[in-house]
Amino acid sequence: MVREPCRVASPSPPLHNYSSEQPSKQAAASSPIMAAAMARRQQAHFLIVTYPSQGHVTPARHLARRLVHGAGARATVCVPVSAFRKMFPADDGEVVVEEEGGAVAYAAYSDGYDGGFDRAVDDHTRYMAQLSTVGARTVAGVLRRLRGEGRPVTCAVYTLLLPWVAGVARDHGVGAVAVFWIQPTTALAAYYHYFRGGRDAVVAAAASGDASAEVNLLPGLPPLRVRDIPSFLAITSDDDPFAFVLSEFAELIDTLERGGGGGGELPTYVLANTFDAMERDALACVGAAMSEAVAGRAAAWREEARVAVARGGASERNLSEFVRRFVPK
Predict the structure, then answer these.
(1) What confidence score (pLDDT) does residue 40 get?
(2) Same-domain pairing of 84 and 212
(3) Residue 113 falls within a domain, yes or no?
(4) Which end of the chain is more exposed for a tag (fewer CB within 10 A), N or C?
(5) Consecutive 10-residue averages of pLDDT for the chain (329 residues)
(6) A single Gene Ontology molecular function, please (predicted)?
């Protein structure tokens, strides 16, 4: 309410005395800031944690931009310190670097190898152990910092080889997690069936030394040749320098199966790039040479892909529907 102005004997203009119900000029001036803060609180906020490899970081950055510009969410890409320093040489690797108008942010976490991993002297198995231990502690710090800044994370997304992120997110009150599957979707099916009964057949075929040896790995599809399956699945020796990857993928598959939202586990989603119109034929052709008929449909597939990724296309609609699940109520 507005009170009547006080009358004074001097020729001074009347003084307008406002009650606490009337915003002051200072409050009015700050209302756009308050409105912006309110809008931020009503946005879904995705923390995308990546492995320190360009093949992981680049897709994560693309996903962040799509979440922001295509679905109206906020996104923070969280990379190891070594990668952060290469991306932002002028920064100290500790702060969030804003870009794209402040909607996409970058934060650093430590994997225990802040100077980078040296293939010539460092051990992959030890690195993965350090990554899960030190990484869990420092990603937790990023979650706390974002919450303290008024930007709590509503969904934690992680790229391959980082299944421990799910536990960190759960312990810090994040509502859901998502795996960002940066390989072809059919590779996910191959990994799943490998760890759910297909391992012995794959190992036997790979151990034969014949790259054309066939194995029935994907139910309902023709046999795959050894050279057609993901190369990590063809590892037959624990002494292989990349043998550590198999245990990480095994843990990831276990995490996905547990991620139904029950038993204290967070709901787990899988974000994957797939093109249905093309994939049906591609899957049918696995293990066989590409026929002229299939090759001749490349132009049609290209047009369908263009429509799918265009503004308002199936890709954008699917992503927007996913984001709406995490908008704070």
Answers:
(1) 52
(2) no
(3) yes
(4) C
(5) 29 28 41 46 87 93 89 92 88 61 83 88 88 96 94 94 92 92 87 92 93 90 90 90 89 81 70 64 40 50 65 78 78
(6) quercetin 3-O-glucosyltransferase activity
Domain shared by 55 and 178, yes or no = yes
Catalytic residue list contains 124: no
Give me the helices (H) in the chain, please. Answer: 25-41, 54-71, 81-87, 124-148, 165-171, 185-193, 199-207, 244-258, 276-284, 292-296, 298-309, 314-324
Report which residue type is found at 85.
Answer: R
DSSP per-residue codes, 193-255:
HIIIIIHHHHHHHHHTT-TT-EE--STTSPPEEGGGS-GGGG---TTSTTTHHHHHHHHHHHH
Selection from 161, 163, 145, 235 nearest residue 194 by Cα: 235
Last residue within a domain, chosen from 183, 211, 245? 183
Judge if 229 and 201 occupy the same domain: yes
Cross-sheet strand order for the sheet of 104-109? 97-99, 104-109, 74-80, 45-49, 155-158, 177-181, 268-272
Choosing from 45, 56, 172, 193, the catalytic residue is: 56
* Residue 70 CB partners (closer than 8 Å, separation 6+): 311, 316, 319, 320
Give me the pLDDT at residue 10, please: 32
Cα angle: 225, vertex 229, 234; to 5 degrees:
95
- 255 phi, psi to nearest 5 deg: -65, -40
Q: For position 302, what pLDDT does the model report?
A: 59
pTM to 2 decimal places: 0.74
pLDDT at 305: 64
Tell me, what amino acid is at 111?
A: D
Report the distance separating Cα 43 and Cα 103, nearest Å: 10
Q: Which domain holds residue 198?
A: 189-253
